[in-house]
Amino acid sequence: MIQKIPTAGIILAAGKSKRFGRPKQLLQLNGRCLLEWVLDAAINAKLKQIVLVLGYAHSKIQQTLGKILHHPKLQIEVNPHYEDGQSSSLQFGLSSVIDTYSAVMFLLADQPLVDVTTLNYLLDHFWSSDKDICVPTCAGKSGTPCIFSSYFYPQIMKITGDIGARQIIKANPEHVLEVDIKNPLFFLDVDTPEDLEKIKKFAD
Known about the structure:
By secondary structure, the protein is α/β, with parallel strands linked by helices. The protein has helices at residues 34-44, 58-65, 86-95, 116-128, 153-156, 166-171, 193-200; strands spanning 7-13, 28-29, 32-33, 49-54, 74-78, 103-108, 133-138, 141-142, 146-149, 176-180.
């Protein structure tokens, strides 16, 4: 029997998208912006609360998202230090739920093909295990979204620079549950215009 641990989702959407040249969060994919795809999946998954961490162009992003911003599960946080890198947004999002939830799932704003079924699949496996980290894998490679229990909150709050929590995962293999995901599309992210065109072929 799965023992559900109340888990919050933290969507990292504060970056400048320097490589792309404009905010990736607002790129259009089949009539919706990239961020809306991720938000919709997270809100409809078994996550109890969603924290959306914004930063660069946050006002424009909020105007574009519209009604979904009023969903009762969603909490908006604007990171004033987003230029310090991804670690800053990880910590900013985590700090808003650190005393409320004993586990968090970190999601990225540029992975529009994450889906409710797979998010719940990851959550169910994590909840059924005795591990403190859950990482999706495909063809031997790990990716995101990742789940962390509160055991690693102190370490996450010490990360510096423009990196996520990958170094924590790498340094603690005995704590990591790897969950094989058969669908490689789940991992696709958008770093270039070519990536966006590729993903358009698969987005429903």
